[in-house]
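It is worth pausing here to work through a concrete case rather than discussing structure prediction in the abstract. The textbook approach is simple: state the sequence, then state the predicted structure, then interpret. We follow exactly that order.
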Amino acid sequence: MATTSAALPQPARTRRVRRNMQPYLYLLPAFIVMGIITFYPLLFQVWMSFHDFGLKNFRTVNPVPAPFIGLDNYIRIAESQLQIPNFEFPRLVLFNIWWAFSNVVVHVVFGVLVAVVLNTKGLMFRGIYRALFILPVVIPSIIVATVWRNMFDPDAGAVNFLLQGIGGLVGIAADNPLFHLNWLRQSNDPIPFIPLPLAYFAMITANTWLGWPLNAVVATGALQSIPGDLYEAAEMDGASAWQKFRTVTIPFLRPAMLPYAIYGFVITFNLFFLPYFMTSGEPFGRTEILVTQAYRLAQERQLYGVAAAFSVYLFFLLLLITLITNRLAKATKSYAD
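Step two, the predicted structure:
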């Protein structure tokens, strides 16, 4: 009888183990797929970054082993010693950070302002406006870059034609050089004390058109969650429109907009299609960003080991920026905090 009673808990223990393992069995196919298409390529890329890896090392028949060179790829990148025209790694990093930061600021400010206007009581056709504003997000990215590149064409672009029309209203001749700007290739900076080419302003214009609608949608959702009693209480206390916006609207927008701003920073930091298809990095590589440079290293110059090291730099740089931004913005804090 003692042996029988001791054996009884075993089936219960087995059932408990099976029940605990069941969720992992359901997740196993996803882990296998992620391991094949995500984790293995990432690890292989890190391995490539420590080798002089070229096209010949991809051969399946009589493959040539890639020689191990340690940190040489990383050192050459950091010291801007790659045999690439106009390659300066510190300038590339600084421009990439500024490009992402300036876009996020413009997107968030513009998106919040539009959301506040659309949230006005009594505004007609608000649903139609919101549907129209989201259209840029669903247009294929290569079409967006191509259309804006043609709009900034120096001879037949819509932007220069618009400037000519505005100039004609104030009596400026159409042959004025201001109306024939080479937006995407001009090497002289439009603002002497700001080292940014004219192509940067063309890119940020295109990306503002593309990026602010989604910010407006997020801000609209946050605005609609604000209790109306708070505005009524502020109004009874004699608060002005600006005071209500500063003390009521902004605190309730922060938990929604700050995480989205960090997300927008990451997306813009890696925004490939505008620098590549719209400006091609011109003039003289000054609108190149890290992700397009990594692509050129791999696709155009077939320096796969260098490109892998470049991508590792990109990963840790973006991780560091995200952690710092999240820390400073305290984006994970709740309303009560």
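Step three, interpretation. The mean pLDDT is 85. Residues 185 and 283 are 5 Å apart (CA to CA).
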